[in-house]
Specification:
Bound molecules: adenosine-5'-triphosphate
Radius of gyration: 41 Å
Strand order of the largest sheet: 6-7-8-3-9-10
CATH topology of the largest domain: Rossmann fold
Distance between the termini: 104 Å
CATH class of the largest domain: Alpha Beta
Helix content: 55-70%
Number of helices: 29
Shape: elongated
Length: 748
C-alpha cells in the first residue's frame, strides 16, 4: 500500500494511543503470567523479566510502526521508555536492599494506580532531561572540578569556560579572601535554617506542652542563629565586594597596558571610543555582574544545599516529591511565559508602527495640509491603534494565564506536599513540627532553586561577555622585535632606499601611498619635503618613527637598518613636531617634561626658550603650572604648538622633524620660531615639511613628492631653474586670485 502524507498523518495521530493500549495489554498479560505457579517463587526475576518484556515490545512497536513519532525512536525517547519499564523494578529492588517491605510493590505494580504513577514518573524524568537542570548540574560539576584545579576539560572549551578560567586567574591572588567569603556564606546560610527548624520545634511544643523549657530554648536559639547569620552576611558582602573591586581594577589595568602596547595600525582600525568602552564599560559590566549576580548565585546555592540537606533529614520521601514537582512548576509558567513574551513583542512592534505613522505625518505636515488629508492620516493612525488594541487584549489574557499558571502550579505542589505530609504525620512517620519545618523549607527551596536557575545563565552570560576583554588581553602587537643598537653618538644620516608602502586595511584593497621612494637626508642639514596634499610626506615621517613598516625597500639610519635600533633610543633621538600636535590635559610643565620625569626645570626653561615659548608661558596665570590641555586650557593654538616644540627640544634630539609644525602661527611668530629653531639646532638633522614655499626655500636640500614618488630634488634655485613641479608650486603660491572674466579683461 502506498502511504500518502494524509495516511501517515492519521497513523501518527494514533501512535500514542496505540502505544498506551499496547502497554496496558502487556502489563496485564505479565500480571496473569506472574500468577502462574512457575513464577510464584521468583518474584524479583519476574519483576525484572516483566519490565524487560514490556520494554522490548514497546521499543519494537515504536521503531516499526509507520506513523511512529521521531522523538520516540530517538535516544531521549528510548531513555524515557527505559524509565517507564524499569523504574519500578529498580525502586522495588532498592527497598529490598534497604530491608524495607516489598510484598506490596512486587505484587501490586500492575495496578491501575501504579501504571499511572509510572507515566507520571516518566513525564517528570523527561522534563528533567529536556530542561537544563541536568546540564546545569553537570556543567557545575565540570567547572568546579576542572577550573579550580586548572585541569583540562574533556570537551573543547567554549568561550564562557575559557573566560571563566582567565577570571579565576585574576581571583587567584585573593584566594584567601575568597576562602573566607565562602566560609561566611556557608555559616550564614546555615544560620538561615534556624527559623524553619525552630518554628517546627515550637509547633511540636504547642502540641505537647510537657517540656516548658523547650519553647524558650527554641526561640532563643532561633534568634541567636538568625542574628549571627545576618552579621556574617554583612561581613561577607563587604569582603566580597571589596575583593571584586580589586579584581576589577587589575583587569582594567592589564587591558590598558595591553592596548597601549599595540601597533599604531591597531589604533587606526579601532576607534578610540570603542577601545575606551572595552576598558571601562565592558570591564564595569563584567565586574557588576560578578559582584551582584555571582554573589546572589553563591548565596542561593548555599541556601539550596542546606535546604536540601535539612529537607532530606526531615523526610526523604517528601523531598523526593518536591524534587519531582519542581520541573512542572518551572515548565508550565515557562511555556505560558514565552507565549506572553511573544505577544508582548508583537505589541511593541505594533506600537512602533503607530509611532512611525505619527512621526511621518508630523514631519510631512505641510504636505498633509496642502493635500487637505488630515482626516485620512487620522484614520490611518486609528487603524494602527486598533491593531495594537487587539494585540493588547491578547497580551492581557496571556499575562493573566501566565500568572495564574504560575500560582496554580505552586499551589498544587504545596497541596500535594501537605496532603502527603499529612498522611505521614497520621502514620506517625514524621511529627507535625517536622511537617511545619518541611513546608517552610520547601517555600525557601523553591525560590532558591528558581534564583539559581535565573542567576546562573546571567552569570554565564556576563562571563561570556568578558570574552571581548580577554581577546584584547591575548592580542600580541604586530611589531617587529626591538633592535639592539643604541650608539653613543649618532650623525643623523637618513636614507630611504626604494621604499614602497601602503596602509594596512582590514577589508578593502589598500592603495600604495609611497612607490619606490629613495631619499637621502644628509646629517646636520635642513632638508625640506614638499608636495601637494596627500602626496605621502607625513607617511615618510611615520615610517621614520617606526609606526609602520615599509612593504618593500629599507630605511637606513647612519647606514644601519632602522629596525636594528632600540625603540626607546630611536624615540629619544628623533623628535617630531606635527601640525596636529596634541597637548595633554595637564600643566605646561608636565607637558614639556612628558616622558622625561628626571628632566630638571633648567632643561625645561632652556627648551622653552629655544621654542620661543618661555616668555608667553611666564605671562600665563600660573606660569608653567597652567593647564595646557584641550579642555579648559588657557593657551591658544599657536602657543600650544610652541609648547609642543619645547617638548621635542628638551630631549636634545639628533633629528628634528617639523611636519607643518608652525602652520598655526602668524607670520611674525612663525618667522621667530623658525629662526630660533634653525639657529639653535645647528648640529641637528632637520626634516622640514611645509606647504609654504617661503619656509622651505632656505633649506639646504628640497625633495618634491608627487603621488607617492620623488618628482624632483635639489636646492631652491636649482629647482626653480628646472622649471618643473616645484617651480609651478612656487608660482601658484605667489599668484593672487582673480576671476576668469577679469583674467580675460586683463589679457585684452
Ligand atoms: N592612518 C592612515 N590609514 C590609511 N590611510 C592613510 C593614513 N594616513 C594617511 N593615509 C593616506 O595616505 C595618503 C598620504 O597621506 P599623507 O598624510 O602621508 O600625505 P601628506 O602629503 O602628508 O598630506 P598633507 O599635506 O595633507 O598632510 C593619503 O591618501 C591619506 O589618505
Amino acid at each position: 500500500m502506498i502511504k500518502t502524507p494524509y495516511t501517515m498523518q492519521k497513523m501518527s495521530c494514533f501512535f500514542y494511543l496505540l502505544f498506551v493500549c499496547l502497554d496496558v495489554c502487556v502489563v496485564h498479560a505479565v500480571r496473569l503470567a506472574q500468577l502462574s505457579p512457575v513464577f510464584l517463587s521468583y518474584p524479583f526475576i519476574f519483576l525484572w523479566g516483566g519490565g524487560l518484556t514490556r520494554a522490548v515490545l514497546l521499543a519494537l512497536f515504536a521503531l516499526n510502526y509507520p506513523g511512529s513519532s521521531p522523538w520516540m525512536s530517538s535516544f531521549k525517547g528510548l531513555q524515557s521508555l527505559g524509565v517507564l519499564c524499569f523504574h519500578f523494578p529498580a525502586y522495588t529492588s532498592l527497598l529490598w536492599i534497604l530491608g524495607q517491605p516489598t510484598a506490596e510493590a512486587v505484587w501490586g505494580w500492575h495496578s491501575w494506580e501504579r501504571v499511572c504513577q509510572g507515566y507520571v514518573v516518566t513525564l517528570v524524568a523527561w522534563l528533567y532531561w529536556s530542561q537544563y537542570v541536568l546540564s546545569l548540574l553537570l556543567s557545575w560539576g565540570r567547572y568546579f572540578s576542572s577550573l579550580w584545579t586548572g585541569g583540562a576539560s574533556e570537551k573543547p572549551e567554549d568561550n564562557t569556560s575559557s573566560s571563566l578560567k582567565r577570571l579565576l586567574g585574576y581571583m587567584r591572588p585573593y584566594v584567601g579572601r575568597f576562602g573566607a567569603v565562602l566560609s561566611l556564606v556557608i555559616f550564614s546560610s546555615y544560620g538561615e535554617m534556624a527559623i524553619p527548624q525552630y518554628t517546627g520545634r515550637v509547633a511540636d511544643w504547642i502540641q505537647n506542652e510537657s517540656a516548658p523549657d523547650a519553647f524558650t530554648e527554641a526561640i532563643t536559639r532561633m534568634t541567636l542563629m538568625t542574628i549571627g547569620s545576618a552579621v556574617l552576611e554583612f561581613f561577607c558582602d563587604l569582603m566580597y565586594n571589596t575583593t571584586m573591586s580589586l579584581v576589577h581594577t587589575s583587569v582594567q589595568k592589564d587591558v590598558f597596558q595591553t592596548v597601549i602596547k599595540q601597533e599604531i595600525a591597531y589604533f587606526d582600525d579601532n576607534p578610540t571610543g570603542e577601545l575606551v568602552s572595552r576598558i571601562t564599560t565592558d570591564t564595569n559590566d563584567m565586574s557588576e555582574a560578578l559582584s551582584e549576580k555571582l554573589s546572589l548565585l553563591m548565596w542561593y546555592s548555599g541556601r539550596f544545599s542546606f535546604l536540601l540537606w535539612f529537607m532530606v533529614s526531615q523526610s526523604w520521601k517528601m523531598t523526593l516529591l518536591t524534587c519531582m514537582g519542581l520541573p512542572i512548576i518551572w515548565v508550565i509558567p515557562k511555556l505560558t511565559g514565552s507565549f506572553h513574551q511573544e505577544i508582548a513583542a508583537k505589541v511593541q512592534a505594533s506600537l512602533a508602527k503607530a509611532n512611525q505613522v505619527a512621526t511621518e505625518t508630523f514631519s510631512c505636515m505641510k504636505t498633509v495640509r496642502s493635500f487637505a488629508n488630515e482626516d485620512g492620516e487620522t484614520e490611518r493612525y486609528k487603524r494602527q491603534l486598533d491593531d495594537t488594541y487587539a494585540l493588547n487584549k491578547q497580551e492581557a489574557a496571556a499575562y493573566a494565564a501566565s500568572t495564574w499558571a504560575n500560582s496554580m502550579t505552586t499551589l498544587a505542589l504545596k497541596v500535594c506536599i501537605l496532603y502527603y505530609g499529612g498522611t505521614l504525620v497520621t502514620r506517625g512517620t514524621v511529627s507535625s513540627g517536622d511537617l511545619v519545618s518541611f513546608v517552610l523549607y520547601e517555600l525557601q527551596f523553591a525560590s532558591a532553586v528558581e534564583a539559581v536557575m535565573r542567576y546562573y545563565p546571567e552569570v554565564r552570560k556576563a562571563i561570556g561577555g568578558s570574552e571581548k576583554i580577554f581577546e584584547i588581553l591575548d592580542r600580541k602587537p604586530v611589531i617587529p622585535e626591538d633592535g639592539t643598537l643604541a650608539p653613543e653618538s649618532l650623525k643623523g644620516h637618513i636614507q630611504f632606499q626604494h621604499v614602497s608602502f601602503s596602509y594596512p586595511k582590514k577589508e578593502e584593497q589598500s592603495t600604495p601611498v609611497l612607490k619606490d621612494v629613495s631619499l637621502d637626508i644628509k646629517p646636520g642639514q635642513i632638508t625640506a619635503l614638499v608636495g601637494l596634499n596627500r602626496s605621502g610626506k607625513s607617511t615618510c615621517v611615520k615610517l621614520l618613527e617606526r609606526f609602520y613598516q615599509p612593504e618593500e625597500g629599507q630605511i637606513l639610519l647612519d647606514g644601519k637598518p632602522l629596525q636594528n635600533y632600540k625603540d626607546q633610543y630611536l624615540h629619544e633621538q628623533i623628535a617630531v613636531v606635527s601640525q596636529d600636535c596634541v597637548l595633554f590635559a595637564r600643566s605646561v610643565r608636565e607637558n614639556i617634561k612628558y616622558g622625561l620625569e628626571d628632566a630638571t626645570d633648567e632643561d625645561m626653561y632652556r627648551a622653552a626658550k629655544r621654542a620661543s615659548a618661555h616668555d608667553f608661558i611666564m605671562e600665563l596665570s600660573s606660569g608653567y603650572d597652567t593647564d595646557a590641555g584641550e579642555k579648559g586650557g588657557q593657551v591658544s593654538g599657536g602657543q600650544k604648538q610652541r609648547i609642543a616644540i619645547a617638548r621635542a627640544l628638551i630631549r636634545c634630539p639628533k633629528i628634528l622633524i617639523l611636519d607643518n609644525a608652525t602652520s598655526d602661527l602668524d607670520p611674525e611668530n612663525e618667522y621667530q620660531v623658525h629662526q630660533a629653531l634653525l639657529n639653535q639646532t645647528k648640529d641637528c638633522t632637520v626634516l622640514l615639511i611645509s606647504t609654504k614655499m617661503s619656509v622651505v626655500e632656505k633649506a639646504n636640500h628640497i625633495i618634491v613628492l608627487n603621488e607617492g614618488t620623488v618628482e624632483e630634488e635639489g636646492s631652491h634655485d636649482e629647482l626653480l631653474e628646472l622649471d618643473g613641479f616645484y617651480a609651478e608650486m612656487v608660482r601658484k603660491q605667489n599668484t593672487g586670485f582673480h576671476r576668469q572674466g577679469e583674467e580675460g579683461n586683463d589679457s585684452q
